[in-house]
Specification:
single chain; mainly alpha; 85% helix
């Protein structure tokens, strides 16, 4: 009995972190989708665009990163504002009641923090496991959850009927799965080498590049809000670049000062030896 209990506990500890990740991802997506029925789409865009800020806060609280400086928080805020500006679209429907709006905002807050917790938890798991292991186990648990939902909701049967009429659906889903798998592997690699905050920052900038490319692929007016948003993103990037350059310069100066100090000590020792 003790052996069985020990094995069950070991199995639980082995899969618990990945079940938590799957639950957080599902919670983030479901809360965001549910909130869409209670708040304007622009409100959802602003919240989802601000993922970087709670990611930074949780990274410090979970000791995944050292505390960030005010310029770093300023750059992150400008970047989030820029992304929100690109995704913003004026609402055309009547305003919902205050109670419904507050409920929608609460759902978005839960979605935001669940979304921010995921890369931080992945960073902790990567301290003891490979990126391939984290990716495979996370996707395996997530796929199991989704499969059960599809089965019990009846959606799986509907898809099988549709795919029987459109066999290319399997090819499209497979291609999308391979593409997403590769992108997730790259994302986890960034988390492993540079941390959760850098990964989310890269993901946020990727959204901006995707929107900019869409203007080239599907020509449409580049409005004033888009120009201001692009300016905010550019300023955020320049702040971070300036910080990196300044930090590198300080390191070089410290090394030069250390070299000069060491040289002066050696010269003093040599002079003393010669005098003796």
């Amino acid at each position: 009995n003790l052996s069985v209990c020990a094995k069950a506990e070991a199995l639980r500890m082995f899969w618990a972190p990945y079940i938590l990740l799957a639950v957080l991802v599902i919670l983030s997506v479901s809360c965001a989708n549910e909130a869409a029925g209670f708040v304007f789409y622009p409100v959802k865009v602003v919240f989802k665009s601000a993922k970087l800020l709670p990611t930074m806060a949780l990274a410090v609280l979970l000791r995944n990163s050292k505390p960030f400086s005010p310029p770093e928080y300023l750059a992150a805020t400008l970047l989030c504002m820029g992304v929100a500006g690109f995704g913003y679209r004026a609402a055309k429907t009547p305003t919902a009641s205050l109670a419904h709006s507050m409920y929608g905002v609460l759902l978005l807050v839960v979605s935001l923090f669940a979304d921010a917790f995921v890369p931080n938890k992945q960073q902790q798991l990567l301290e003891h496991a490979s990126k391939e292991e984290v990716m495979i186990k996370s996707n395996l648990v997530g796929a199991t959850f989704i499969f059960l939902v599809l089965v019990f909701s009846g959606t799986l049967g509907e898809f099988v009927i549709f795919a029987a009429k459109e066999p290319m659906a399997y090819a499209y889903i497979s291609a999308q799965g391979l593409s997403l798998g590769f992108s997730v592997l790259c994302y986890i690699s960034i988390i492993q080498t540079h941390g959760s905050v850098v990964a989310v920052c890269v993901s946020t900038i990727r959204k901006v590049l995707t929107i900019l490319i869409s203007f080239l692929a599907f020509p449409k007016p580049f409005e004033m809000r888009h120009q201001i948003s692009l300016l905010l993103v550019g300023v955020a990037i320049m702040i971070q670049v300036h910080r990196k350059i300044s930090k590198a310069q300080r390191i070089i100066n410290v090394k030069n000062d250390s070299s000069k100090f060491s040289g002066s000590i050696e010269l003093t020792v040599k002079n003393g030896s010669a005098a003796v």
